[in-house]
Specification:
The chain has five helices and five strands. It has 111 residues and is α/β, with parallel strands linked by helices. It is globular and about 35 Å long. The protein has helices at 2-7, 19-27, 53-59, 77-88, 99-105, and strands at 16-17, 31-34, 49-50, 69-72, 93-96. The model has no long low-confidence stretch (mean pLDDT 91). It has a five-stranded parallel sheet.
């Protein structure tokens, strides 16, 4: 049912934030979650935690409930799915618009 609500636009509204907004939230204590799988081996945002989208449904409860979470992927599509899932669980969550590509374009550090 959840996927159908999202298809119709009835699912949770997850704010999309820019790389610079994400950086500010990180400074204030947010957690950065990388939902990519294989690409994470190529590059990553320092301090990010890997939690692939495919594993999110069974591992989401290990995430902190007391701080904001920012999801990202390569371009922002998979992380939108992850963020909507987490929002349905009641977490404060944001999607990094443009993903790690936007992060790099903003001149922010990548390993």
């Amino acid at each position: 049912w959840g996927w159908f609500k999202n298809l119709l636009g009835l699912g949770p509204r997850v704010p999309r934030i820019s790389a610079l907004e994400a950086q500010e939230k990180l400074r204030a204590g947010a957690l950065l979650i990388d939902v990519r799988t294989l690409e994470r081996k190529l590059n990553k945002i320092p301090g990010s935690q890997g939690l692939p989208l495919a594993e999110l449904a069974r591992r989401w409860e290990s995430l902190p409930k007391d701080r904001p979470i920012i999801c990202f992927c390569e371009s922002g599509s998979r992380s939108q799915q992850a963020a909507e899932f987490l929002a349905e669980k009641g977490l404060e969550v944001y999607n990094l618009a443009g993903g790690i590509s936007a992060w790099q374009a903003a001149g922010l550090p990548v390993k």
